[in-house]
UniProtKB/TrEMBL annotation:
Top EC group: transferase
Coiled-coil ranges (or none): none
Family matches, as Pfam families: GGDEF, HAMP
Residues passing through the membrane, by range: 6-25, 142-164
Classification via PANTHER family: DIGUANYLATE CYCLASE DGCM-RELATED, REGULATORY COMPONENTS OF SENSORY TRANSDUCTION SYSTEM
Protein's name in the database: diguanylate cyclase
Keyword NADP among UniProt keywords: no
Domain HAMP, chain residue ranges per copy: 158-213
Every GGDEF domain range: 281-414
Length: 424
């Protein structure tokens, strides 16, 4: 009878231990899974937020750079950014393999959905953590169950069925409720072996409760530590991105006008030229010089010339769109890339710019300066095989504007006729 009873008790203890272990692992799986999902969705949302202005501005180069930066995150497997129509604008992969979860986020610009971002996040770290937790909990519960079964076996005598059944029922009820331990001590009614068994059970139950609280505390601590590490990692990532952005801005910005410099302009010209060549989209280049700029410097000093250049940079920023690229190319030479713009539309823009410069009061040390612009306009066409050809066409038009009396603009088609000796 004692052997049979010992078998019953052992079975109950092992089932209880296994149930507790499974409940714990499932609970932690849900918690860690929620944290992983939240982190993955956060990456997708942040990427979508960063991509909104780039998609709206057709900034394919920075879109690729954004996707590559996101794949440097330790858990990111791949990033895909596409338009609302489904056309993939850029895709980047980290080279990591293994199971992953996919997170998507719409790209919204000025209240309108213009695309979507898909981010695949590796679940390898989560699965490894859950596997380690499962075997650790299972081992602890198995050891504890074995010890408890042996104690019951050595302190149980045959023939005491009813008290043992009562004890078994209490344990089974605890398992059915899903509790990890009995909420209260069992009553000790005698001082014999059964009474001592109940006392030992109460002691072990309290020990189990203590171990449960300690284990839960360790799990909570580990979860909190993981959250803190994620926060620290996010902070360092933001600091690195800020530093990279600052370095990129310094390398691509003219210090005087705070406009993009020649290097940034040449990169944008090459990129937009090939986009127009590939997709058949309009692209117009505007080049202009400040009329008699050397005379301003000679008559009023270089401080006056620098002031004129700064104010022209300010006027440019007021007139261009977000998709346009204004730049100071060097000295008093400026350039503007007008995307999705033909020559006729560029003429309207240039008229507004010229009128704005004429109406603007350029003053240095109380003296009003006479400032005008000579402007050349050239639209991309299929005969232009390189970005340099488009630049050369705009430069020809600029030359005609200067030859025609300055403070005016000229379009490339007219410039060709003028330079060939024909009346425009």
């Amino acid at each position: 009878m004692s052997t049979k009873l010992m078998g019953y008790v052992m079975a109950g203890v092992l089932v209880t231990s296994a149930g507790i272990g499974l409940v714990r692992v499932r609970n932690e799986r849900a918690l860690l899974g929620a944290l992983t999902d939240a982190a993955g969705q956060s990456v997708a949302n942040a990427t979508a937020s960063g991509a909104a202005a780039l998609i709206a501005g057709y900034d394919y180069g920075n879109l690729e750079l954004l996707a590559q930066n996101v794949t440097r995150e330790p858990t990111v497997v791949s990033v895909t950014i596409h338009k609302q129509s489904g056309t993939v604008m850029t895709r980047a992969a980290s080279g990591r393999t293994g199971p992953a979860r996919r997170f998507e986020s719409p790209v919204v610009f000025e209240g309108r959905t213009i695309g979507a971002v898909t981010v695949d996040v590796s679940t390898g770290p989560l699965e490894r953590a859950l596997t380690d937790l499962y075997w650790r909990v299972l081992g602890e519960q198995a050891v504890f169950g074995s010890i408890l079964g042996l104690i019951v076996y050595f302190f149980t005598v045959g023939g005491i069925v009813a008290p043992i059944r009562k004890l078994t029922r209490v344990m089974e009820e605890t398992v059915e409720k899903g509790d990890s331990f009995v909420a209260r001590d069992l009553e000790v009614k005698s001082g014999d072996e059964i009474g001592r068994l109940v006392s030992v059970f109460n002691t072990l139950n309290r020990s189990l409760a203590s171990h449960h609280r300690q284990l839960q505390s360790r799990i909570d601590f580990a979860s909190q530590e993981l959250q803190e590490k994620n926060i620290q990692l996010s902070g360092r990532t933001r600091e690195l991105e800020h530093a990279l952005d600052l370095l990129g801005t310094m390398a691509m910005t003219d210090w005087l006008t705070e406009l993009p410099n020649r290097r940034k302009f040449d990169e944008a010209l090459t990129r937009m030229f090939h986009q127009s060549e590939r997709f058949g989209e309009d692209l117009t280049l505007v080049l202009f010089d400040v009329d008699h700029f050397k005379l301003i410097n000679d008559s009023h000093g270089h401080g006056a010339g620098d002031g004129v250049l700064r104010e022209i940079g300010t006027l440019l920023r007021l007139h261009v769109r977000k998709s346009d690229v204004p730049a100071r190319l060097g000295g008093d030479e400026f350039g503007i890339l007008l995307y999705h713009t033909n020559a006729g539309q560029a003429e309207l823009f240039v008229d507004i710019l010229l009128n704005g410069v004429r109406a603007h009061g350029f003053v240095h040390n109380g003296v009003r300066l006479n400032v005008g612009l000579s402007i050349g306009i050239a639209q991309y066409n299929a005969t232009m095989k390189t970005p340099e050809a488009l630049y050369y066409a705009a430069d020809k038009a600029l030359y005609q504007a200067k030859q025609g009396g300055r403070d005016r603009y000229s379009v490339y088609a007219d410039a060709v006729r003028f330079l060939d000796g024909k009346k425009p």
